[in-house]
User: What shape does this take?
Amino acid sequence: MEGRPTVSLAEKVRDAVERIGGRRGLALRTRQGYGSWAARFAAWAGSRERALDPGCARDWLGRLVSETRVSFATQKQALNALVFLYRDVCGLEEVDLGVKLRKTSRRIPVVLDMKDVMKLIEKLEPVYRLPAQLQYGAGLRVSELVNLRIKDVDTQRRQIEVRGGKGDKDRVTVLPSQLVGSIQKHKEPARQLYEEDRRNASPGVELPGALARKMPKAGKRWAWFWLFPAKDLSKDPASGIVRRHHLHPAVYSRALQRAALAADIEKRVTSHVLRHSFATHLLEGGCDIRTIQELLGHGDVKTTEIYTHVAKGANGCGVTSPFDILSPG
Assistant: This one.
């Protein structure tokens, strides 16, 4: 008889972090990120005894900070992952790893001008066109875009409610008036998928952890259905339940890349480019930086100020190049 497959220490740690993270209500991507960092640390530690030693974790984090070129945000996530491991998984009450993180310079965002935004959207396959228009028009992160539910889009007030954004924060952003009709029309096939799921007695859509316990039947209500539902049912990676999920962010991102290639756009186009372009074009149009900060959901205005480095014209950088004054046309 064959023995049970050997499970490595790294795999055990990853599974434990993701399991406890689910119980604590952490978002799936957060659980996966913490699990990945905890597994990397456990593999480096090499033994259960060393992995349980905060001093060993301090040494590993110190090397990550001093010997690699990872960003400040990545360093912070690795630190948070190990704090979660010791506090929530291992049950330590006091966790102070005492590592000073290294600040890194911010990268200037890639921004498309308005003509390129239009070219990009025109080259998108029809099923991805409205999501891209909405992402650009409201300044959404891709995770916020695909997680929109029917109830989050208020066509009367021209507002979008972003629930559980980065840092688990809620905010309100603008809904472009020109997209109201398209959204209303888009709801018709989405409603057909919703009705199909109800006829087939499929489980309701995924709900945030606390809400799933408080209102377990809400996932079967139209208001909580995805604005951009997936065409087919698939297995929930967290629970194993086969249900309707939203548009997959990786599928949407690849569609943007295909459209950028077809539109002959020379810049590197990712799903975040439309959000960057939204902020920059608002700044160039004279919108004040604080309003843009609120629409983007930035906790610190310094994060928003990065767009002043790529904005054009008097409403952006505040200057005109002397060459433009010297050169005719």
About this structure: The longest strand covers residues 229-235. The mean pLDDT is 88. Residues 9-89 form a domain with the DNA polymerase; domain 1 fold (CATH 1.10.150.130).
